[in-house]
Amino acid sequence: MPRSVNSVASRARRKKLLKLAKGYWGKRKNVLTIAKHSIEKGLGYAYRDRKSKKRNFRSLWIVRINAGSRVHGLSYSQFMNLVHKSGLGLNRKVLADMAMNHPETFAEIVKSVK
User: Residue 3 burial (CB < 10 Å; 0-12/13-18/19+)?
Assistant: First the structure.
Protein backbone atom coordinates (compact mmCIF):
# COMPACT_ATOMS: atom_id res chain seq x y z
CA MET A 1 0.00 0.00 0.00
CA PRO A 2 1.43 3.41 -0.89
CA ARG A 3 2.38 5.87 1.84
CA SER A 4 -0.15 8.64 2.53
CA VAL A 5 1.23 11.92 3.87
CA ASN A 6 -1.62 14.43 3.44
CA SER A 7 0.54 17.09 1.83
CA VAL A 8 -2.51 19.27 1.20
CA ALA A 9 -2.98 19.94 4.94
CA SER A 10 0.77 20.36 5.50
CA ARG A 11 1.01 22.94 2.73
CA ALA A 12 -2.06 24.76 4.04
CA ARG A 13 -0.50 25.02 7.50
CA ARG A 14 2.72 26.40 6.06
CA LYS A 15 0.87 28.85 3.83
CA LYS A 16 -1.14 30.08 6.81
CA LEU A 17 2.05 30.78 8.79
CA LEU A 18 3.78 32.49 5.88
CA LYS A 19 0.69 34.61 5.27
CA LEU A 20 0.89 35.84 8.87
CA ALA A 21 4.57 36.70 8.29
CA LYS A 22 3.77 38.95 5.33
CA GLY A 23 5.61 42.25 5.56
CA TYR A 24 8.44 40.91 7.73
CA TRP A 25 12.02 41.63 6.65
CA GLY A 26 14.55 39.14 5.30
CA LYS A 27 14.21 35.43 6.06
CA ARG A 28 11.47 36.13 8.57
CA LYS A 29 8.97 36.28 5.72
CA ASN A 30 9.88 33.18 3.71
CA VAL A 31 11.77 30.61 5.83
CA LEU A 32 9.22 28.57 7.71
CA THR A 33 11.03 27.99 11.02
CA ILE A 34 12.19 31.60 11.34
CA ALA A 35 8.78 32.91 10.30
CA LYS A 36 7.08 30.65 12.87
CA HIS A 37 9.31 32.01 15.65
CA SER A 38 8.70 35.62 14.59
CA ILE A 39 4.95 35.10 14.42
CA GLU A 40 4.85 33.51 17.90
CA LYS A 41 6.80 36.43 19.34
CA GLY A 42 4.65 38.95 17.51
CA LEU A 43 1.38 37.40 18.66
CA GLY A 44 2.68 37.33 22.23
CA TYR A 45 3.58 41.01 22.06
CA ALA A 46 0.19 41.80 20.53
CA TYR A 47 -1.63 40.02 23.37
CA ARG A 48 0.49 41.75 26.03
CA ASP A 49 0.12 45.19 24.51
CA ARG A 50 -3.65 44.96 24.09
CA LYS A 51 -3.69 44.85 27.90
CA SER A 52 -1.08 47.58 28.41
CA LYS A 53 -2.87 49.88 25.96
CA LYS A 54 -5.82 50.06 28.36
CA ARG A 55 -3.49 50.95 31.25
CA ASN A 56 -1.72 53.61 29.18
CA PHE A 57 -4.95 55.30 28.14
CA ARG A 58 -6.33 55.30 31.68
CA SER A 59 -3.17 57.00 32.98
CA LEU A 60 -3.35 59.55 30.15
CA TRP A 61 -6.96 60.34 31.02
CA ILE A 62 -6.03 60.76 34.69
CA VAL A 63 -3.24 63.20 33.79
CA ARG A 64 -5.61 65.27 31.64
CA ILE A 65 -8.36 65.36 34.27
CA ASN A 66 -5.81 66.32 36.92
CA ALA A 67 -4.51 69.20 34.79
CA GLY A 68 -8.04 70.41 34.07
CA SER A 69 -9.22 70.19 37.67
CA ARG A 70 -6.14 71.91 39.13
CA VAL A 71 -6.99 75.00 37.08
CA HIS A 72 -10.18 75.17 39.17
CA GLY A 73 -8.44 74.59 42.52
CA LEU A 74 -9.04 70.85 42.95
CA SER A 75 -6.68 67.90 42.81
CA TYR A 76 -7.58 64.85 40.75
CA SER A 77 -8.57 62.78 43.77
CA GLN A 78 -10.74 65.56 45.23
CA PHE A 79 -12.45 66.11 41.88
CA MET A 80 -13.15 62.41 41.27
CA ASN A 81 -14.47 62.05 44.82
CA LEU A 82 -16.93 64.90 44.16
CA VAL A 83 -17.89 63.38 40.79
CA HIS A 84 -18.70 60.03 42.39
CA LYS A 85 -20.61 61.62 45.27
CA SER A 86 -22.68 63.74 42.90
CA GLY A 87 -23.66 60.68 40.87
CA LEU A 88 -22.47 62.21 37.62
CA GLY A 89 -22.46 59.41 35.05
CA LEU A 90 -19.35 60.44 33.12
CA ASN A 91 -16.31 58.19 32.88
CA ARG A 92 -12.66 59.24 32.82
CA LYS A 93 -12.47 59.09 29.03
CA VAL A 94 -15.26 61.62 28.59
CA LEU A 95 -14.03 63.85 31.42
CA ALA A 96 -10.50 63.88 29.96
CA ASP A 97 -11.83 64.81 26.53
CA MET A 98 -13.85 67.67 28.01
CA ALA A 99 -10.91 68.89 30.08
CA MET A 100 -8.69 69.03 27.02
CA ASN A 101 -10.99 70.02 24.15
CA HIS A 102 -13.91 71.79 25.87
CA PRO A 103 -12.54 73.62 28.92
CA GLU A 104 -15.65 75.80 29.38
CA THR A 105 -17.88 72.68 29.59
CA PHE A 106 -15.42 71.10 32.01
CA ALA A 107 -15.55 74.28 34.13
CA GLU A 108 -19.35 73.92 34.34
CA ILE A 109 -18.95 70.32 35.46
CA VAL A 110 -16.48 71.35 38.17
CA LYS A 111 -18.87 74.09 39.30
CA SER A 112 -21.81 71.68 39.44
CA VAL A 113 -19.98 69.04 41.52
CA LYS A 114 -18.48 71.53 43.99
Answer: exposed
Which pLDDT tens digit goes with each residue over 12-38? 999 999 999 999 999 999 999 999 999
- With beta carbons less than 8 A apart as the criterion, state whether 56 and 49 touch: no
Q: What is the pLDDT of residues 82-111, one digit of tens each?
A: 999 998 888 999 999 999 999 999 999 999
Query: pTM surpassing 0.70?
Result: yes
Domains and CATH numbers, the chain: 8-113 (1.10.1900.20)
Alpha helices in 1-114 (DSSP H): 7-20, 32-71, 76-86, 92-101, 103-113
Three-class secondary structure of residue 88 per DSSP: coil
Residue 86 DSSP class: H
